[in-house]
Amino acid sequence: MPGEKVTQIEENLLKTFQEIDLIAPVQRALADEKYETPTPIQAQTIPATMQGRDVLGCAQTGTGKTAAFAVPILNQLGQGNRKSTPKRPLVLALAPTRELAIQIGASFAVYGRHLKLRQALVYGGVNQGKQVRAMNRGAHILVATPGRLLDLMNQGHIKLDQLEMFVLDEADRMLDMGFLPDLKRIISHLPEKRQSLFFSATLPPSIIKLSQSLLHKPVSVNVTPETTSVERIEQRLLYVDRAEKKTLLKSILTSEGVDRALVFTKTKRTANLLEKQLLKDGIAATAIHGDKSQNARQRALEAFRRKQVKVLVATDVAARGIDIDNITHVVNFDLPIEPENYVHRIGRTGRAGAEGIALSFCCGDERRELRSIERLIGQKVPIDPELSLPEPAEFKSGGSSHRRRDAGSKRSKFKRSASKRSGAKNSGPKGPGAKGSGAKSSGAKSSGGKGAGKYRKVEAAGGPSASKPKRRPGRKPKKAGQRPAHTA
């Protein structure tokens, strides 16, 4: 990759923020926050940014990437004491989600509290009136998500012709979410002469390619270890019948040692259903996903941050941008389709070098997702010996997951293994309300043990439920002797 490579030489790293030639108002703000020692990403990128260099920075989540670009930007703007121009920001920071944009804006406000600088937040999900008024007053710093930014640009409320500094945060996530066309349209409006800062938790080939086309002789800083940060997180895999997932989740969440849990689902519908089920079970929970209004999402995050609720149920929209410490457990209720999201999900409990516990449910049709995850992290996820069903035989065989011919027999084998594990017998037809055979009783800790607590027994629910033949909605039952209607 073109650009100067900044190597991780410990003796060359800045030891304190006092060593950085920052203006007094910024130094005072850092002192207010009790910031003394910069993190590796800050120590290596802040000086380069202050020299006017383009930067491509990579570091794991929770290591201070936001301060790594916010501090030098504020330092630069604070020296000129320039007035803001209506509709024309000097700095643009792009983020993939509303939550992350709000957090970036909060960081700029904290580190710039002693400076007379204006900033504006622009994101979707809320009325644009307040955002338009903020841009009409003028803002030195604009923090935005791509969609709403383009909307306001098309309406003439934002012009980027005077932009001096461009920040792309969580660049890999931006591309994962399909924002590349929007990014190209936004970048086409930027001045040729500008300083660009790209920050990301990972550096996939797509980001390298984008940086090569947009950054000018960038300083490349990668403080992410060669091995993934997930190694510090205690990971456990739990094979479970799909019908037993909710019962197993309840058992885990009500166990000793589970103080604050983040539960990930594959779909928004599942997140909503799970929230209702947990509340019904007496577990304080709330859900967050893309269909929620911005106010609802912020209320949910704030309730989780203040421990007003114990469980936050989320889709992958929340895998990035949740800046909440002391999450003790992450539960993958559904395995993610994209294996990279597994790392981002469980990273919520391993913030800034902390340890955590990540439990992943896996049922018969999630084999492909599991194999992709294990290839990405370079290790097999350990099976929880106390709570997991036995590994299905077809998972061990290594056969192709593309073959559909024996899909039915594979599912039945998985269910038979669940029945064998629990020692229960199926009785009667299995209707929509039936829960299956139940999972193994456990009174012992998971083998990892770190704060996992004793997970209570997973009990099978009730007996068989009577099933009625279903008919398609809107179709009346056919009377005796009635001939079917002829359709053309």
TrEMBL record:
A motif (Q motif) lies at residues 15-43. The keyword Hydrolase applies. The keyword DNA-binding does not apply. Residues 46-221 form the Helicase ATP-binding domain. Its EC number is 3.6.4.13. Keywords: ATP-binding, Helicase, Hydrolase, Nucleotide-binding. Residues 232-395 form the Helicase C-terminal domain. Pfam families: DEAD, Helicase_C. GO terms for cellular component: cytosol. InterPro entries: DEAD/DEAH_box_helicase_dom, DEAD/DEAH_RhlB, DEAD_box_RNA_helicase, Helicase_ATP-bd, Helicase_C-like, P-loop_NTPase, RNA-helicase_DEAD-box_CS, RNA_helicase_DEAD_Q_motif. SMART domains: DEXDc (SM00487), HELICc (SM00490). GO terms for molecular function: ATP binding; hydrolase activity; nucleic acid binding; RNA helicase activity. Residues 401-423, 468-481 have a biased composition (Basic residues). It is an enzyme of class 3 (hydrolase). Residues 15-43 form the DEAD-box RNA helicase Q domain. Residues 384-488 are annotated as: Disordered. Belongs to the DEAD box helicase family. This is ATP-dependent RNA helicase RhlE.
